[in-house]
Amino acid sequence: MRITFIGGGNMASAIIAGLSTLGRQDLQLHVVDRNPDKCERMKAAYGITYSNQLSAADIDADVVVLAIKPQQLKALGEQIRPWMRQQLIVSVAAGIRTATLAEWLGGYARIVRVMPNTPAQVQLGVSGLFATEAVRDAEKQTVTSIFEAVGKTVWLQHEAEIDKITAISGSGPAYVFYMIESLASAARTLGFAPELADLLAKETFKGAIALLDASGEPPATLRANVTSKKGTTEQGIMSLQDDGLEAIVTRAAQRAEARSIELGDQLSAAE
Known about the structure:
alpha/beta, ProC C-terminal domain-like fold, 12 helices, 8 strands, 54% helix
């Protein structure tokens, strides 16, 4: 199977790194990117082939992954339109809806839209996937195998759910980083040195997630287990509840979803 990546940025590099660990001899990975130094590094690390200028030969692949900036996608679609045959198009460009991309491709509709997240760079990502009706089940399985190389995959029934998953797993790592920042700030307020405060906050989050994975219990159960009645943790949790942490996080997700919809409207309407 030949997979061509148009764009060799962080997400393409993460996917290629994940695929390279599978040891599949049938995979041929090809990258199109204008930066020759970047391409040479990827060739040395993962054994890819590459081109610095896009041509019809680059698009002669089973799967073509569009991993460029959304603002560049219209021009790219119009460029590769004459070269469309039976390729499966996979777009990780945020905001561009499948109907718009199909229009830019001259009506070509074998498209899967993917919303990955940044932990894909360490093979711990979550990717939301949506396929048009023109995509066959076997092709959906192919896309699943590609993105399972960088984490978990979730197939969505409606394209509008892309905006929802963007608000949760797409933007979610930033929420977590901010919470770690906040816990570290609290540690500094209590008198810890900055380096130790950062260590305590990071390792606390890391350990909590590891425990959650290992235990198989829901977060609410683990929280209850550590929250002794009239104990220290109870006071901390009560403060978070009084300040409305759940409502704060929900509002953040709602605002992120609204912005995702807005950006999708703008980008998909761009001339």
